[in-house]
Amino acid sequence: MPKNSLQLDFHDAFGPHRIIRVFEPKLDLYGALVVDNVAAGPSIGGLRMAEDVTMEECFRLARAMTLKNAAAGLPHGGGKSVLAGDPRMPAAQKEERIRAFACALASEEGYIFGPDMGTDEQCMAWVRDEIGRAVGLPREIGGIPLDELGATGFGLMHSIEAALPFVGLSLDGARIAVQGFGSVGMHAARFLAEKGAILVAASDSGGTIENSGGLDVAALIAHKRAGGSVGTFAGGRASNRDAVIAIECDIWIPAARPDVVTIDNVDQLQARIVAQGANIPLTEAAEMQLHKRGVLCLPDFIANAGGVICAAMEYRGVGETAAFTEIANRIARNTDEMLSRGKADGKAPRQAALDMATARLRAAMSTRRWSIF
Ligand code: NAD
After folding, report:
1. DSSP state of 245
2. Pocket probe mutation, ligand 1, options 144, 183, 262, max atoms within 8 Å of Cβ
């Protein structure tokens, strides 16, 4: 069919299925929802609140959720919502805006809200109170506090553990460096340290701290929780924020922002494994460069799926312990399958993971009257 004016440049066989833009003049509220694909079930994806959030970000993240949920074998499609505004605005104002946005999307049953940058379990409680469809809730109303428990860091540890035989490494004594010592990064460091790994460097937006003899993970977490930056931690040598990229280590964990490693700085990385805690932390070209150098990259949508697996379990009313068992099993199995396929077919891990995810998605789509909804 010839291109028409309603067709987006990025429409493809998987979506996006629905695009909804929300405007409420009374609050000067601007938001949007992209439901990418619901062939496997209602989409789950976070609500991102930021002053500079874009539609393009929303489309990219919705697709990323389709792939992540399919790769994890969850009966959920992918979606994402965005709300313009400073997430640190006064609580009453934030509550009013999030409640209004949830009401605007009340009839969108193909989308289940989750927390993301700028939103948390309290925000999800407001959404649930308005429309009943939210995950990542406070414990008091049936939630599994995934950031407090470290669901994504836990999954990352299991992805790394499953990858070790492919590079001949052991966790005992493995040197790790974490970029972005926040919720994902600090829990990944904690779980890996429990298995004998040594944290040699960590960073946050305020700087990097390094100690080749090993940082005290529990003390560093306490320092962060008390409001400090890792750069002011007493147990190591402080340097600038991006120094963490060049740290010599076995396992490098980006857990901060997208696109932090590009073709311009990828040569600085000195690790055997790059385990992606953040979403799209490496550009495609940088990741391919590492693959050619023999560095094993565990792609975001396989390695950091712990949070969404936990959320999907919460939605089914599964308890914490069983949810964590699901995270461990699914992520270990998927990492092994991805790396085994990649090895057999001579493909980079991301391509092998994409093949796995799209095969699951196509299988779900083939069961439907309409393919993506
Ligand atoms: P967070 O806000 O708790 O932590 C992020 C940390 O990164 C902070 O300590 C911040 O200071 C630091 N940081 C920001 N920019 C940095 C930079 N340029 N260099 C070094 N450090 C920097 O966020 P989070 O929940 O840990 O999420 C981190 C990333 O992981 C995000 O990309 C998020 O989308 C992704 N992610 C999170 C989850 C989850 O369960 N929380 C799940 C999947 C993916």
Report:
1. G
2. 183
Distance (Å, rounded) from C-alpha 348 to C-alpha 139?
39
Grade residue 1 by pLDDT with cuts at 50, 70 and 90.
Answer: low
Query: What's phi and psi for 333, nearest 5 deg?
Result: -65, -45
- Residue 80 bears catalytic tag: yes
Report which protein residue has its CA nearest ligand 1's atom 18.
Answer: 205
pLDDT at residue 367, rounded to an integer: 95
Section 323-335 average pLDDT: 97
pTM of the model: 0.94
| Both structure tokens of 272 | 């055997």
Q: What is the mean pLDDT of residues 254-258?
A: 93
Q: Which residue has the tokens 């699914």?
A: 330
Structure tokens at 373: 């909804």
Residue nearest atom 27 of ligand 1, based on CA coordinates? 184
What is the set of domains in the chain, with CATH numbers?
Answer: 3-66+79-148 (3.40.50.10860), 151-301 (3.40.50.720)
Determine contact, residues 146/311, Cβ cutoff 8 Å.
yes
What distance in angstroms lies between residue 258's CA and the mean position of ligand 1's atoms?
Answer: 9
Beta strands in 191-340 (DSSP E): 198-204, 207-210, 237-239, 251-254, 273-275, 296-298
